[in-house]
Amino acid sequence: MDGTLLDTEAVFKTIVFEVCADLGFEMTDDVHRSMVGGSHERTNQLLLEAYGVSFPYALFDEKCRVSMRERSHGGVPVKAGVRDFIAALHANNIRTAVATSSRNPHAQHHLSAAGLLDLFETIVTRDDVTHPKPHPEPYLTAARRLDVAPKDCLALEDSYAGVHAAHAAGMQTIMVPDLVHPSEEILALGIAVMESLTHVHAAAFPVRR
Q1: Domain span including residue 197
Q2: How far apart are CA 35 and CA 44, in angstroms?
Q3: Based on the domain organization, do 163 and 125 belong to the same domain?
Q4: Is the pLDDT of residue 209 over 80?
Q5: Residues 151, 193 within the same domain
Q6: CATH classification at residue 180
Q7: Among 105, 144, 174, 208, which lies 20 to 30 A Cα-Cα from 25?
Q8: Residue of 20, 29, 5, 30 whose CA lies nearest to 67
Q9: What is residue 207's predicted lDDT score, i.e. its pLDDT?
Q10: Average pLDDT score over residue span 74-81
Q11: pTM (2 d.p.)
Q12: Is residue 3 part of a domain?
């Protein structure tokens, strides 16, 4: 969701740096990159490893959520090519789902504010699974709800955790990088890396002349 459908990762990066500074900690690009695409629990673990057990994660999380809500009042920006690509999927009777590490209230609010919520048959959030990304459970749950075999699914991801999850679920995976670019390991797990969903759209539905 964030970083693939919604252009929110850059906003969240700014918030993370600001909130850490307010709490007396210095966020770094390396720590932030490790957080991208991760679950609430994984982010908590990473920040405690980076800053020690004194890091006030609950307060950090709440401040980030409040700031994100304030900044999304005017709507949530959508990544380039999203609406046209989803329309093409629907026109070709291809079923669609979202698998996100976000909690349900966050996912519902952001997708609704972006005008995308009703365009997907199902939304799998952190609240729907026992094991979040990089575990395959979110993607396996999405495939089960769609009644489609994982091997027949195409997963689009912007994060390392997401690519690992989709690959482990047995799905064909394309990375569409946002703030994090693919490593050699990530390249080996996917079938392609594409610049945007506009490029994925063009590859999936080439114009016939």
Answers
A1: 82-204
A2: 9
A3: yes
A4: no
A5: yes
A6: 3.40.50.1000
A7: 105
A8: 20
A9: 76
A10: 88
A11: 0.83
A12: no
User: CA 116, CA 107: separation in Å to the nearest integer?
Assistant: 11
Count, residues in the chain: 209
Is residue 16 situated within a structural domain? yes
Query: Where does the pLDDT of residue 123 fall: very low under 50, low under 70, confident under 90, or very high at 90 and above?
Result: very high
Say how far apart CA 169 and CA 163 lie, in whole Å: 10
Q: Which pLDDT does position 154 carry in this prediction?
A: 98
Are residue 144 and residue 111 in the same domain, yes or no?
yes
pLDDT digits (tens, 9 = 90+) for 130-185: 999 999 999 999 999 999 999 999 999 999 999 999 999 999 999 999 988 999 99
Please name the amino acid found at residue 51.
Y
- Edge to edge, the sheet with strand 172-175 lists 154-157, 172-175, 192-193
Give the Å distances, CA to CA, from 186 to 18, 93, 121, 148, 155: 30, 30, 28, 25, 14
Q: Residue 59, Cα to own-chain centre: how many angstroms?
A: 23
Residues 98 and 184 reside in one and the same domain: yes
Evaluate the omega torsion of the peptide bond into residue 134 and state whether it is cis, within 30 degrees of 0. Answer: yes
